[in-house]
Amino acid sequence: MYLIHSIRRPAGILLWLAGALLASLIAAAPAALATPRPRPPGWNKHPPLPAHVHAAVTGGMPGWQLTLIAAAAALVAAALAVMVYRARSARRRATVSAA
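User: That's the sequence. What structure does it adopt?
Assistant: Structure tokens below.
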């Protein structure tokens, strides 16, 4: 048990550093992948084939629907937070009054 308590802080620091490194790698990945590659000689002998676009890609979801979903999620999260707070405060009051 004392071993776990003694390595708790260094393990937390190590996990924090690993998370920061992972976040920086994820943030830098799109920039590294966006660099153009050199084309091999003779790559433009034939024109490219036309691209097929699916309706789901072009349609998307309207902004008002996204706003409605975000507002509903915020209301649900707030309601759950209030319910948890009230349940904990009721439990604390019961133990304090019994003592």
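The radius of gyration is 27 Å.
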